[in-house]
Backbone:
């Protein structure tokens, strides 16, 4: 007599967990994500947000998708990025800054010390005797602004400054349906 | 500008609590609080943790790049930076005034900007605090929680923001980081099809914007003890007003009132920015501390944003918002309102005004046709100021009113930014 097979529970459909962050970015990618407008109400039937500028969750949980806006301009950006890589199954570089460093990387040809001195000490309109901020609470700026793929493995990239709302929608609905994301005509752009 | 709790007398041995990162705001920041053994607050600071250096790295670039580069300072208020830079460049090029068509299309773009940013701030970012309470369940204290508990309010917020974003798209070419405004004017008109599309929705927006003012007003009326006192502090207030003293979000002159409401600066040209305002640095934040030179660092600091603008102007030049402004002012019973939470109410009054202005501009034939570019004798230097939208304006560590940008011609024919990167 063979023993009865153990009873397995049928898998319950569960919401995908999505975390988002803006590193050295301008929040424009997050805004373009919100530009899915009323489709947001449909999206939240299928996903739930973890740590994100849109929520008050500070500790990153284990997530299905991590959306990274912005490149790396300071030490804290690097630390947060590594946490996201460790806890997100699929990590996405969203927008020009995450992918290439973007406009903030325009400072890469300048010496950081000279740049800080110029901005905080020698520009017109500054109070006499102003000094460069140096409190230990401030993350140290990196000498150069880096794209995120130089530090962690990236699974997908959504190009654009910012990627369009339709690109976000197409990408996320593909992932939710278990398809390999594919950006069709008009959704891939590099402005 | 100093506060009792800015720096603890003896920070050693105090317990540190951090809110890191600050969420549901526009920007990168953290708050640190030092507590003593009796859990009393001894020090509290808002740290703006990001440094970028835009003001330096745009030096030497072609001047026409500046309006599209500096808008990347902020993806929530890109149009404000886009237009502040354009306005500064208009001066540099001697293109003042710009043509009526260009001015009206830029104004339309900017009122769309203020509308979408105000809707975002009130509905997407702040409404969970106001509808559920500051200490409500953390997992629901966000726009998703609002959508579940108050789907009607969430939907109106999403649609109001969408309309503002669409106004930007039809004027700037793109919802975020568009290219419509150029030094000297605009590079496109509004198409008839786009104008008709917006006109089809604007009446609905007007109704929802009035609903939004009523929500903010009712919140105050239901709990005046908290709404009038939470985070309240007295300060000067600075804003732009039009030359006749009316509210103007795109252009005008600088006006400041002291904490009692007395006008202490009026009719000041944006070109006198450096003569009027000095910027100080503190070691614990990358944000600068602007203050009126005439009053100095201890007393010259000021608040900006909707609370300042609604109370600084003599009138809002649109009927529905003006009626709401009067009701707001009456709430203060003859005194200026300094309550931090009153920002929300003032913000919704402004949002109503933006919809009224957008509605009028959509009926103006100049946005469809007419000269777009002006030219003149190059001056070599200019400042552009426009009303800002930062949520940080609600903190004590207020930024300068306006996304001020000053550009100076170099001997080689390129232009230099001379103003700092305002977070």
Residues:
């Amino acid at each position: 007599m063979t023993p009865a097979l153990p009873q397995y529970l049928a898998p319950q459909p569960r919401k995908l967990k999505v975390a988002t962050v803006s590193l050295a970015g301008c929040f424009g990618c997050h805004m373009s994500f919100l530009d899915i407008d009323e489709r947001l109400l449909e999206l939240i039937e299928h996903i739930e947000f973890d740590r994100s500028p849109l929520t008050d969750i500070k500790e990153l949980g284990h997530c299905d998708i991590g959306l990274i806006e912005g490149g790396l301009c300071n030490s804290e950006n690097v630390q947060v990025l590594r946490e996201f890589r460790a806890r997100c199954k699929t990590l996405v570089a969203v927008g020009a800054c995450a992918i290439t460093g973007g406009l903030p990387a325009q400072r890469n040809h300048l010496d950081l010390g000279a740049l800080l001195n110029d901005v905080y000490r020698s520009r017109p309109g500054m109070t006499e005797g102003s000094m460069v901020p140096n409190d230990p609470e401030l993350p140290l700026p990196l000498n150069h602004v880096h794209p995120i793929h130089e530090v962690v493995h990236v699974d997908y990239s959504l190009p654009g400054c910012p990627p369009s709302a339709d690109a976000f929608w197409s990408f996320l609905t593909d992932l939710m349906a278990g398809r390999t994301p594919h950006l069709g005509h008009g959704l891939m752009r590099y402005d | 500008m100093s506060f009792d709790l800015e720096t603890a007398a003896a920070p050693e041995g105090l317990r540190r609590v951090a809110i890191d990162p600050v969420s549901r705001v526009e920007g990168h920041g953290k708050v640190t609080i030092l507590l003593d053994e009796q859990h009393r607050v001894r020090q509290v600071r808002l740290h703006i943790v990001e440094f970028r250096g835009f003001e330096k790295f745009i030096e030497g670039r072609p001047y026409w790049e500046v309006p599209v580069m500096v808008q990347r300072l902020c993806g929530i208020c890109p149009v404000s930076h886009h237009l502040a830079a354009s306005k500064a460049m208009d001066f540099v090029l001697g293109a003042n005034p710009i043509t009526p068509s260009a001015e009206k299309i830029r104004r339309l773009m900017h009122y769309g900007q203020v509308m979408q940013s105000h809707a975002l701030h009130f509905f997407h970012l702040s409404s969970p605090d106001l509808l559920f309470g500051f200490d409500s369940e953390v997992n629901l204290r966000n726009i998703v929680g609002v959508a579940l508990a108050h789907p009607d309010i969430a939907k109106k917020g999403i649609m109001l923001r969408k309309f503002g974003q669409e106004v930007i798209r039809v004027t700037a070419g793109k919802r975020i980081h568009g290219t419509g405004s150029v030094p000297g004017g605009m590079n496109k008109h509004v198409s008839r099809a786009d104008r008709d599309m917006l006109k089809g929705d604007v009446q609905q927006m007007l109704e929802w914007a009035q609903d939004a003012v009523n929500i903010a007003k009712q919140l105050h009326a239901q709990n005046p003890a908290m709404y009038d006192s939470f985070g309240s502090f007295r300060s000067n207030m600075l804003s732009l007003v039009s030359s006749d003293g009316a509210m103007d979000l795109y252009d005008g002159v600088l006006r400041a009132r002291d904490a009692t409401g007395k006008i202490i600066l009026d009719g000041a040209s944006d070109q006198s920015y450096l003569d009027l305002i000095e910027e100080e640095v503190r070691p614990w934040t990358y944000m600068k501390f602007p203050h009126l030179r005439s009053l100095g660092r201890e007393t010259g600091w000021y608040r900006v944003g909707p609370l300042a603008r609604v109370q600084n102007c003599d009138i809002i030049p649109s009927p529905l918002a003006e009626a709401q402004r009067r009701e707001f002012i009456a709430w203060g019973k003859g005194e200026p309102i300094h309550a931090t939470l009153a920002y929300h109410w003032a913000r919704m009054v402004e949002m109503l005004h933006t919809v009224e202005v957008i509605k009028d501009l959509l009926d103006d034939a100049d946005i469809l046709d007419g000269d777009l570019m002006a030219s003149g004798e190059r001056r070599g230097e200019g400042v552009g100021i426009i009303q800002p939208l930062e949520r940080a304006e609600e903190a004590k560590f207020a930024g300068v009113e306006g996304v001020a940008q000053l550009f100076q011609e170099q001997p080689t024919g390129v232009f230099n930014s001379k103003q700092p990167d305002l977070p």
